[in-house]
Design the sequence.
């Protein structure tokens, strides 16, 4: 019951964030269909334009006209928009970007595989797009949209190699696995696998051997599966594990997972200002906390992000408390110990989530109705804000970020 209450609240927020279109030419003009869980889950819904719909931020936004370095895609009013950082360090709206017509009724659930393909929940299907690495343009993959066998979707994830797509199916208490065609990006169903409880968030270890599924801030267990070469999931011995964690993130070596419990409001643990570091048994996939874990944070982290180099960890608190809502740590890749970065906490950087491009050169933030970006010093972890924020991008907090290539 608690899970369903949370999903209902999230659906209401999503519906408010996506309603309306501000009169943009070519935009859908109907009312969004009713949402099921946090997915779009739409029945009926907006009337689709016959052509692409341009999605731009508010007037006066900065632009970046140099050679692209990284793109960040967002969803505003059920359409995809895009921002860009160029190699000269300019940040702005991606000029000339056109929202693919097939993305209408989109939710903010997006994930990128291999920097080549973007997948997005659209109604009860997954839309797939090829990413033009030079321009950031999106083109529908042949066969898209791809049907799902689940009815409620809470989140999407891929393994580090981009071989599989994992769909957490919320109150369906299951995970659907789809294989990604390594040439075309097309999706094919592998199977649907039961979880012990609410399926909220999934991550693989850094080597793609094991899948970990949490119950979000509602639960106290983590399901663990071995992933076969074809994507089949087999629960490991001892799964589900009695671990109260909302979100887990992996680092590249496959040795550790890092997590936060969230604000503790729903799982009864109370406010929790810590980061948890788990060692992964390389033979079984089982988790155990490293010595010294959990590690204290100044604020209560609602989410965290791992830098692609595997040594830098950043936590996010979406509300201003004290100096900032964002902190940074150095991860010892031998012991799993966390040490606060010299510049942490970061003044003026407040967001509920953070997203790195694959190179780790940029960290994108989506606070409120704007997108910001900072350059990252991969040696020290120091962050430097780039330019001015892009505004008018909607309240949906998720992004899908990729390097240009």
Sequence:
């Amino acid at each position: 019951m608690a899970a369903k209450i949370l999903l209902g609240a999230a659906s209401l927020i999503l519906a408010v964030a996506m309603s309306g279109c501000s009169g943009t030419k070519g935009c859908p003009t109907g009312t969004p269909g009713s949402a099921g869980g946090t997915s779009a889950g739409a029945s009926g819904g907006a009337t689709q334009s016959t052509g692409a719909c341009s999605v731009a931020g508010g007037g006066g936004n900065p632009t970046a006209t140099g050679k692209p370095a990284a793109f960040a895609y967002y969803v505003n009013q059920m359409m995809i928009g895009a921002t860009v950082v160029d190699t000269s360090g300019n940040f702005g709206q991606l000029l000339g970007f056109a929202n693919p017509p097939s993305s209408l009724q989109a939710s903010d659930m997006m994930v990128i595989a291999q920097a080549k393909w973007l997948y997005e929940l659209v109604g009860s299907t997954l839309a797939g797009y090829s990413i033009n690495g030079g321009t950031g343009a999106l083109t529908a993959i042949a066969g898209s949209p791809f049907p799902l066998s689940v009815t409620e979707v809470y989140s999407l994830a891929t393994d580090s190699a981009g071989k599989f797509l994992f769909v957490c199916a919320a109150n369906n208490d299951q995970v659907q696995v789809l294989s990604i065609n390594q040439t075309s990006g097309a999706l094919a169903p592998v199977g649907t696998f039961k979880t012990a409880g609410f399926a909220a968030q999934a991550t693989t270890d850094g080597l793609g051997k094991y899948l970990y599924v949490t119950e979000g801030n509602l639960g106290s267990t983590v399901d663990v599966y071995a992933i076969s070469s074809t994507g089949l999931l087999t629960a490991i011995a001892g799964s589900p594990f009695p671990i109260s964690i909302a979100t887990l993130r992996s680092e590249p070596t496959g040795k550790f997972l890092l997590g936060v419990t969230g604000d503790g409001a729903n799982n009864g643990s109370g406010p929790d200002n810590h980061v948890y570091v788990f060692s992964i048994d390389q033979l079984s996939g089982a988790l155990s906390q490293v010595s010294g874990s959990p590690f204290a944070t100044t604020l209560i982290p609602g989410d965290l992000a791992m830098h692609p180099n595997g040594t830098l960890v950043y936590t996010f608190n979406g509300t201003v408390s004290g100096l900032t809502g964002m902190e940074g740590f150095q991860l010892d890749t031998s012991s799993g110990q966390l040490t606060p970065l010299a510049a942490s906490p970061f003044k003026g950087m407040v967001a509920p989530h953070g997203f790195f491009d694959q190179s780790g050169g940029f960290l994108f933030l989506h606070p409120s109705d704007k997108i910001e970006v900072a350059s990252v010093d991969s040696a020290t972890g120091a962050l430097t804000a780039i330019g001015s924020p892009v505004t008018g991008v909607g309240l949906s907090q998720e992004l899908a970020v990729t390097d240009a290539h």
The chain has a mean pLDDT of 83. The longest helix spans residues 2-18. DSSP finds one helix and 31 strands in the chain.
